[in-house]
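Assemble and predict.
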Amino acid sequence: MTAAAASANVASAARPRRRPRVRNVGPRAFLVLLILFLFAPLFVVVLFSFNATASLSFPIPGFSLRWYDKVLDDREVVAALGRSAIAAFITGIAGGAIGILAALGIQGLPPRWKGAVQTVVLIPIATPALLLGIGIAIYFNRLGIKPPRLPMAIAGHVLLALPFVLLTMTAALERFRFSLLEAARDLGASRARAFWTITFPLVLPAVLGAALLAAAVSIDEFIIAFFNTGSDGTLPLVIYSRIRRVIDPGLNALATILLVATTLLAVLAARTTTARR
Amino acid sequence: MTTSSSATAIQFEGVNKFFGRFQAVKDLNLEIREGEFFSLLGPSGCGKTTSLRMLAGFEEADSGCILLRGSDVTSAPPNKRPVNMVFQHYELFPHMTVFGNVAYGLRLKKVRDPELSRRVQEMLRVVRVDGLEGRGARQLSGGQQQRVALARALVNRPAVLLLDEPLSALDVKLRKQMQIELKSIQHQLGTTFVYVTHDQEEALLMSDRIGIMNQGRLLQVGTPREIYGRPADAFVADFVGSLNAFDLRVDEVSGGRAVMRLADGEHVAVALEGAVAAPASTIRVAIRPERIRVTEAQAAGADTGAPGASRVGGVVTAVDYVGSLTTYRIETALGLIAAQEANDTLAPDLVVGDRVVLSWAPDAAFVLPPSIVEG
């Protein structure tokens, strides 16, 4: 909707302005209200993270970074932050690697298989995370794998991220000219050589984008982590356990950190995938 | 640098290729000589591109074999063949510069600087894009891409250069210019070119020899003059250039010619050249529009033509003026005949409805063999 509005702006800027642009007022007001409605809670959280006092009253008496200070001094929080970062990093790497290989594999399938496989790999999107979380816990339990359990949660994150990763990669490969590989082969490159010199550099931005997307999925994932980790929980779990005990203004700071990290990853992902072309 | 014309560069021996149930190439037997500019000409789906791709190694023949300078390459992978290809859509590597593209093959062959740079620069000069080596492949015009693709292939000094409709993406003017240039580059380097095209004019202009294909079969191989002047069958005749075809009732056979007598002392003759024509039978005869002379009926006078020359009266039904040429459509006893006159100072000034006399030399018309392939 914003893109449409933007292109409408461009179009009207090109034409000489004859009439004031009033006819879009209704839809635009609606859009602004919608965005306010969606982002107001986030705004409140961010605002209170800079609150000078512990009281959750409005307007806030003053600004300070004391809650950030407090949270980052908290060993439990810092440890959880570290585990979240590890989980996000591994999910990103694994997601990116599996993504490109799977997408290339799917691309080479005969057309009638292609559609079927593409549907199957999207199933995790439609599966309740609850089911995935419990399922993974039971599965690893049956295999006899007990703690450390963070890797189990990470495996779940990779599974959860896979559909997003594959959607990104498949779209990138649709645009890739496979005939370029024929040209490379014709000039003397082996299959492997053609992949590393032509395919890989050309789809690298998409792979990076997919990896960042996978990391973003991991960093704020709760349910799978909840069922598969305990004392080695990720950041969302620590936030959750704190909320149950006492209302801690430090949580606002923590949530803001999480928000900034996720947003940054998503923006970076969008930028790398659309950087070329 | 021309090699002796007797040496064979490529041999197809009984090559067949299927895609599922569809047979793309049927029993292809063909020899292409060293240093020759050879074109495979035919409509889309005739098997010409498949044949080229089998030469490059992108498709494998289902039966038969392909020899390259005497060695069997039927199942060799594309990177193990001394041939290079210029693709229809160029397929330049978009993440590399012009230099990177042209150097790609040499680097794989472990050619190092300074020889690498020297050979790349030299080839860029040959195709006249020197100075663009630092440019990204995406920042080139269509014509420049074409030249870089040519350099990228030729720099490897292939035994044979394969070209798959390389000019089809260019606009008409640039295409004409590149045709001439390609021909001169081929002449300069002496490399064997195998050129696939569906454009008959292009094939006639550029080639030493042409092979015409239709529905997977090679119908005729010959020089442009042979293909145009004496097409092997009705398909070739119709595909290469335009053509008038009509039935000739054989009234008499004399001196190796079949003659049909028409009213008013007019007659049509065709040299049989080995074809069999029994009196009172009917044979199919063809003549190119530009071989027919059109004269106004009053100016034509009496028949003084050489023995075997033909003369038919008719009425102009259409005049198509295209600048250098005019095509007249004339209703005659033989049916509607198209005749082409150059618009020089001697050109007749005719309008629709004028009565004219068509005449042509003894060797202008030829017997049209029935199609080798149906359809």
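The two ends of chain B are 43 Å apart (CA to CA).
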